[in-house]
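Notebook entry, structure prediction.
Reason for the run: the old model in the group folder had no record of what sequence produced it. Starting over properly, with the input documented here first.
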Amino acid sequence: MTDAPDAVVVGAGPNGLVAANMLADAGWRVLVLEAQPEPGGAVRSDRGVHPDYVNDLFSSFYPLAAASPTIRALELERWGLTWSHAPAVVANPFPDGSCAVLHRNREDTARNLETFAPGDGDAYLRLTDLWDRLGPDLLRAFLTPFPPVRPALSMAAKLRAAGGLRLLRMLMLPVRRLGEEEFDGPGAPTLLAGCALHADIFPESTAGTIYGWLLAMMGQEVGWPVPTGGAGMLTAALVRRLESLGGTVRCQARVSKVVVADGRALGVVTDDGDAVRARRAVLADVSAPALYGGLVDGEHLPARLRDDIRRFQWDASTFKVDWALSGPIPWTAPEAAGAGTVHLADGMDHLTRHSAQLATGAVPDRPFCLLGQMTVSDPTRSPAGTESAWAYTHLPQRVREDAGDGSVTGAWGPGEREAMADRVEAEVERRAPGFRDRVVARRILAPPDLNALDENLVGGALNGGTAAVHQQLFFRPVPGAGRATTPVRDLYLASSSAHPGGGVHGACGANAARAALAAERPLDHYLLAPARDAIHRATTAGRRSR
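New structure, fully documented this time:
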């Protein structure tokens, strides 16, 4: 444990790298330890499908990164990051050949939605006007440490002026109900519900409106951009910036234990037995169950926390197919050709049916798929006239049955992977006849593959735990939490298992870095931190662990 860094960051995902950069900005010496052969977590790209095509392994579109004050403040453009946009943000082609399209220009979006029913364009513009009033405060509340006092007070005042309890009721609605109350056609409701389903928020989920509205409005405000050259370029910029400040990223260095003594984190031990001391803090960009169920010995944790973490709920599993295509996808609805993201949903009932099957542990027979047209979004991704593309769908974490032909059991042998990939391709083919003829190569990433490539994606879960209201805010990752601090002094949870949760916004890492820096201040170190520790112990202790 000689020549110890000030902070050890466990995990080089976007949250870990954001935290490391913020600490390095404050003059700390930072070491990031990453289990995989390369940094990035779920922000990586490669040429593994075809040598002429760049495909993103996990995430692709980054509206939250583009809007995040934390990531904007890092000025990653100075370290090589550039953003690229598709002509349109999101499209949802329908079986009758019509297509709902979210454009970056709100008036264009309204004109498109008006074709589904008279008055729907104006109804959509009312939602964008509402965003103009509430959006900045909502984003600040979402992306700052809990409780977000200042943005919450500002938003409360604006809510009252904009309709008070009636407006709050609207935001808490399931997105299906919002569609029934505000729109007459299927275009806008299906777009909003599809956006909500980027997380594990079903059309009938309480507060689903907030998630769908947030993502749609991000499309209006900043678009859904992609890093030019591949998702890995965002990671590369974060690493280059950190290294310019003297920080170090060490890959293939899996941490097996956080060393704790007298209630304080002293450092970590890696799988190969290397003991690394942390002079000031350990920040863990790992899932909450991995931190509290493995890296930290149970003897250092309150009984109630150990019991609560047993109830931690993961978000849905994920199945993904990457393609190298010889040409653009031949959509029946031509408007879909210009969208970076395409939702493959027949309508609201299709989304509800898909969600109900997930809720009962069934593999959907007609899965709702999200499809990314990456060359449309960034022409550098593949040769001219071709397309780099992917699609993914959600699956149950525990498969109980197959609502389709019985070929998918959740065992994920070679035949089962191919069968599920064919099911995903069938959804594309329904809306783009001839699609399969353009497949040059494909790669299948079943839930175990995603988990093997990133240990935080447990069972293929992308968001670090469910985004449902019972595991958000001060319930995330367990009741009484909501902040990056943990029961162990100088140990901070910096992953998407912490507030505010999934998405590439860097807020979870930033919150952890701010907490670590604040703990160094004399007032915090000698008075506030012990008081917070006492409160944390009181809220997470007391019940016997089973």
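Summary: The longest strand covers residues 317-325.
The old model has been moved to the deprecated folder.
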